[in-house]
Each structure stands twice: as structure tokens, then as C-alpha cells.
Amino acid sequence: MSAAELSLHAVLGAGPAGTTLAGELVRRGHAVRLVSRSVPDGAAEGIERFAADVSTPEGALAAVQGAAVVYHCVNVDYHRQVEVMPRVQEAVLAAVETTGARLVVLDTLYPYGPTHGEVMTEETPWRATSRKGRMRAQLDERYLAAHRAGRARVVLGRSADFVGPGVLNSSLGGAVFPGALTGGEVLGMGDIDLPHSYTDIRDVATGLATLGAHPEGDGRVWHLPTAPAVTTREIYSMIEERVGQPVRSVTLAEPRPFGPFDATFMDEYAEMFYQHTEPQIVDSTAFARTFGIRPTPLDATLDATVDWYRTLLAGARS
């Protein structure tokens, strides 16, 4: 590796994506700084823990100082996203413009809006109709405009719903695996017989780290490695095989509080519920073709996720 490749990489956001990414970057031999509003807990050995509010210009600049590559994995409470995420973008963009660092942004499928089952590729039009979808599309336009104008070097990596070790607040997370392992109720949203893409959190990390290592990919959107879509009901059957008992699914035809998703979250999520009433199919073959990185097979993802939740539940019991 060159000296540039081994220089500091700053990861903004210490949720499942940021924490998993920081570990992946350390494995690749980088010096890594993991940033959150308070000093992050549980980061892997060799990671610099750093506290900063990156929604402020001074906080963002302090967070990225000295970094060659910055990864924006920041998220906020769902009901505050429309208010806060534009401020984070403004501060982070200004910081990388000042320092000259490359910016890798973890992105969502929200800008596409309802697709009526169309397979999503990087060429799919952006037709968001929700507040959060339009907000995300506006942010992405600004990122790409900053790159085109030469103000910053930016690349976006889009992910489907997260799944995997460490993932709790996802439609395939804390409302599914604990119930499956203990015989409790498991959440299903909308029509669980429709194909729905899920992205392994470790593939999110691998994909973002790969974009960080390949500046020739800058200036565009990439779909991070995502396994071929199957129905959520099929996933429940695969989980049943691993836990050795039936999955007792409770399917919500419309948003309402369930498990880790309280009324505040579900009220705000209502405008995005179309994601569970039409097929959500992500195609990531462009990433595989360009970078040679293919997604983790769904079998392996579920093996690792069930094992992680088993350990989590055992720790809670003890």
C-alpha cells in the first residue's frame, strides 16, 4: 500500500454501519478515527475514539482534521432527520472542502421513491414523494454538485435495509431475531410475500471501504453489495431452520408501535411504508463488475446474525 492509502481515515457516526466500517478499515491497515457526539464505546482496538458534533462547522472540522478519507455514516433520530441531516451535510461538506479530504457518503434508497416493483439500479430515476425521500434526494444532488464543481471529491454508496451482527433498529433486526430465538412474536411489515432486499452490514462496511480506496469511482452513486432479493417470508423460513422452532410473525398492514419501534418512530415512518407494500429489489452488479466485490450470501448473513443475537441474549440473561 502507498503512504496515502495508509493515512488517517475518519468515520463519522458510531452506529452499526460506522462501527463495522471502522473495524474493516483497521483490518485493512489504516489509522482510523471513529467520531460521534460522545466518545464511542465498544470500538475495536486500534481505533481512535473522538467526540464531536458534526452538525456544527467547528465540530465537523475538528472531526476530519488530518484525514485523507472521511466516511459520513451519521444518522439521527428518525423524527429529526429532515431538520438535522441538511445541517450535518453543510458542516461536513465545508470541512472536507477546507481540508481536501475525500468524502464517502453512506446513502439510502429513499431518493428513488416508489418504484412499483422496478429493479433499482444506479440508473433508476429519483422520484421521491415523501418528505424524507425528497430531503435525501436534495442532499445527494448537493453532494454531486459539489463534486462536479471541484469543491470536494465525493462518492455515494447506497444500501438497502441493514441486516447482520450489531444491527438492532432495522426491519430485519431487533424486532425479528430475539423473538425468533425465544419463541416470541416477530415483526413483519406490509406484504411479507414480496421480494425485499437486505444488505449485510459487513457488506456495507466492505463497500464503503472499497469506495474509500478507489477515487476513480468518485462523483456518482453506487449500490453497495446486496444479496439477491427474496421474500421476507422466505427469510423467516431460513431463520426457522437456524433456531429450530417456528417463527411467530405478526404482520402489520399499516404502521403501529411494535417492539423497539415506538409510536414516535412509526408515526414518522408512515410515509415510507410503501417500501413494504411493493417489491424492493436492489441490483448491485455494477459494484461487483467494477470492483470485484460480491455480496455475502444470505445464508451466511443469517448464520452470523442468529449467532450474534444468541450471544446478545445470553449476555442479557446472565
UniProtKB/TrEMBL annotation:
UniProt protein name: Epimerase
Source organism, top-level taxon: Bacteria
PANTHER family: NAD(P)-BINDING DOMAIN-CONTAINING PROTEIN-RELATED, PROTEIN YEEZ
Domain NAD-dependent epimerase/dehydratase: 13-217
